[in-house]
């Protein structure tokens, strides 16, 4: 893990490479990085043994380095730097081991005799930088006075006269202090240093680009969350800087995302809202109103995303700027564009407005007397227009569902128009994500307004001339097993239960008379199905009643959720024994989710109820979090539903259609 001379040359000449190589998610690969990976893997698997061994090894190496130093050796500092990297990387198992008495390690001596002492030496900027970073990892073991000493050194490390590697390491250290002191609720220690930290970060960002800039922006974001009073006072520096960076690097999605995070923090602080909006909103409005050829590609879509973030994180009622200037700007921008991304982002922004301030936009009117609700309806119609790309409808389901849940009866005949447009779009859509988005509108309505929904769908002809109800149910039933996302899984599964219960209880012929595709028919004499055989003899399926198909789908949904919960419980049991390891795999960001779920193999192996599958987006969606359906225990819900259904007189007729696997699932819950 020791730094090589070649690395010193490369990092000194190219600070961006230093940031890249030191990042947890780096694509670089060196012996140093391989050694780190090995240390983390061993420490994760054998925590107690690793903590004891590492403490002993580090103590020995520090002693040997002291001997080398006393003998005039030049590279003793490399031993110190490597030890600090190793100890800081696995700081949780070390500190908890020391606290519990399992590990013998002189922590006070390490903090003052090694880290603090190394900060007072000028032997290498890389040792100085590593000392700053290492100190930020061990705040839990420090007194407030010692933390202040290290914080003062860290702020000094940001200064212009310091080498780039020291300044970059100081930025990483600041992130660590903010993170750790927020956890321990000791952020008051940071307060005296916040003005210097903000000034230093902004000054540093002006001198670097790319990797260094990203690191600075990420750190500035967490600094904004430390003390709302300070952040409100510093808004006049932070907001103009963030706007300038966003505009300068508008084609960089990482910078745009980090700028959005900073605006989110500012929007959540009431003392910042008015001033921030006065600076930011006119800029966003001017971008949305600009001719597309006059602004960089992607800038308008990103600006709409930022506006969405501000709306979502502002406590209502929304300001006049947001309602009278920003709202019409985003609505009109969405209506006049032919860019799919702008249309999608515009739809999501209007969903935020509908969710946060429906009454305000309903009361607002333009010069022609059109209300905000009228504009929302126009955007919905455009997103569902058969002439536009099907991908514009990828998120329209949530916009429509939010609109229905918030506006309700205010929509009147507009609701019928929306549902007609959805039916029309469904006949064209081929992509699963688009079909799922559209079908989810009917799933939501099935949960809240089932009888009116059935009446509406039966009043319209589908593409074959039969009622649209048959078309919707056929499309839904054929794709239910492919739907992804925990929330969508819960909404659709509960809706299926309600439809089945309604069909049986009310003896509803509209549902009972529909026939849909059942199980695939296999020819046992056929052997292996090649492509040529498949082309000559296409797949064949049984035809079964709709309510039977729904019942089979509910059983299979229960199987999926049982499997996902079992996997999750196993992982949690493993994690309880590896709590310390969770932190060690994280660098300063402490939010690394790894690559799970991003690889094709992970997605294929997941089902909709797996904890990590698309979960991040769902947890960030306030509309999802507010929906009581998101909070239900689906395994319990489906189990109880199926157990109650087994008491129905019709159960035996339904059970005749079950295959062996479905019977085993029911047996596992006592049916």
Distinct helical segment count: 36
User: Based on CA inertia axes, which overall geometry fits?
Assistant: globular
Strand content bin? under 5%
Reading side by side through the largest sheet, how are the strands ordered?
A: 1-2
State the distance separating the first and last CA atoms: 59 Å
Helix content: 55-70%
Radius of gyration: 30 Å
Q: What structural class do helix, strand and pairing data support?
A: mainly alpha
Mean pLDDT: 89
Low-pLDDT residue intervals, each spanning 5 or more residues: 578-605, 611-618
Task: Give the strand tally.
Answer: 2
Largest sheet: 2 strands, antiparallel
3D structure, described in words:
- It is built from 36 helices and two strands.
- With 671 residues, the protein is mainly α.
- The chain has a two-stranded antiparallel ribbon with strand order 1-2.
- The two termini are 59 Å apart.
- The model is unreliable at 578-605 and 611-618 (pLDDT under 50).
């Amino acid at each position: 893990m020791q730094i090589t001379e070649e690395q010193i040359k490369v990092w000194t000449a190219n600070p961006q490479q230093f940031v890249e190589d030191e990042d947890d998610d780096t694509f670089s690969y060196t012996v140093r990085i391989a050694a780190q990976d090995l240390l983390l893997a061993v420490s994760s698997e054998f925590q107690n043994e690793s903590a004891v061994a590492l403490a002993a090894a580090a103590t020995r190496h520090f002693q040997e380095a002291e001997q080398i130093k006393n003998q005039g050796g030049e590279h003793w500092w490399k031993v110190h730097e490597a030890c600090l990297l190793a100890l800081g990387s696995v700081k949780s198992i070390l500190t908890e081991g020391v606290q519990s008495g399992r590990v013998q390690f002189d922590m006070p001596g390490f903090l003052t005799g090694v880290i603090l002492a190394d900060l007072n030496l000028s032997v290498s900027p890389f040792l100085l930088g590593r000392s700053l970073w290492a100190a930020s990892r061990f705040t839990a073991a420090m007194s407030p006075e010692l933390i202040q000493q290290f914080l003062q050194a860290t702020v000094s490390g940001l200064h212009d006269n310091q080498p780039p590697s020291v300044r970059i390491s100081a930025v990483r250290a600041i992130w660590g202090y903010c993170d750790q002191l927020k956890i321990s609720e000791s952020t008051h220690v940071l307060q005296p240093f916040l003005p210097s930290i903000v000034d230093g970060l902004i000054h540093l960002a002006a001198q670097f680009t790319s990797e260094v800039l990203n690191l600075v922006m990420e750190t500035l974001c967490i600094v904004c969350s430390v003390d709302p009073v300070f952040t409100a006072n510093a808004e006049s520096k932070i907001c103009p800087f963030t706007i300038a960076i966003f505009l300068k690097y508008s084609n960089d999605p990482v910078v745009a995302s980090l700028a959005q995070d900073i605006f989110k923090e500012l929007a959540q602080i009431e003392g910042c809202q008015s001033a921030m909006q006065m600076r930011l909103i006119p800029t966003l409005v001017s971008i949305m109103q600009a001719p597309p050829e006059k602004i960089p590609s992607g800038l308008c879509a990103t600006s709409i995303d930022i506006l969405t973030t501000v709306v979502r994180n502002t406590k209502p009622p929304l300001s006049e700027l947001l309602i009278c200037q920003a709202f019409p700007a985003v609505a009109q921008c969405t209506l006049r564009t032919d860019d799919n991304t702008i249309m999608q982002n515009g739809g999501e922004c209007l969903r935020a407005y509908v969710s946060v301030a429906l009454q305000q936009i309903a009361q607002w009117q333009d010069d022609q007397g059109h209300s905000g609700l009228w504009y929302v309806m126009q955007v919905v119609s455009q997103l569902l227009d058969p002439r536009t790309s099907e991908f514009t409808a990828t998120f329209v389901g949530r916009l429509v569902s939010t609109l229905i849940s918030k506006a309700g009866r205010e929509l009147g005949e507009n609701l019928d128009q929306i549902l007609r447009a959805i039916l029309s779009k469904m006949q064209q859509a081929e992509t699963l994500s688009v079909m799922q988005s559209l079908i989810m509108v009917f799933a939501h309505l099935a949960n809240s307004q089932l009888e009116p929904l059935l009446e509406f769908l039966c009043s319209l002809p589908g593409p074959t001339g039969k009622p649209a109800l048959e078309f919707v149910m056929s499309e839904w039933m054929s794709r239910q097993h492919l739907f992804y996302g925990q929330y969508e899984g819960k909404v659709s599964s509960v809706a299926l239960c309600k439809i089945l219960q309604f069909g049986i209880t009310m003896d509803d012929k509209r549902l009972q008379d529909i026939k849909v595709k059942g199980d695939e028919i296999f020819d046992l004499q056929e052997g292996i199905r090649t492509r040529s055989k498949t082309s000559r003899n296409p797949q064949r399926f049984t035809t079964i009643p709709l309510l039977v198909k729904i019942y089979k789908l509910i059983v299979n949904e229960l199987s999926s959720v049982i499997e996902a919960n079992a996997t999750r419980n196993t992982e949690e049991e493993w994690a309880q024994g590896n709590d310390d390891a969770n932190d060690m795999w994280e660098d300063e960001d402490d939010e690394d989710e790894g690559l799970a779920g991003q690889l094709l193999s992970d997605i294929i192996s997941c089902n909709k109820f797996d904890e990590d599958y698309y979960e991040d987006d769902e947890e960030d969606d306030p509309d999802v979090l507010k929906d009581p359906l998101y909070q239900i225990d689906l395994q319990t819900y489906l189990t109880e539903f199926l157990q109650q259904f087994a008491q129905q007189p019709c159960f035996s007729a339904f059970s005749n259609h079950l295959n062996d696997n479905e019977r085993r699932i029911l047996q596992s819950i006592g049916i």
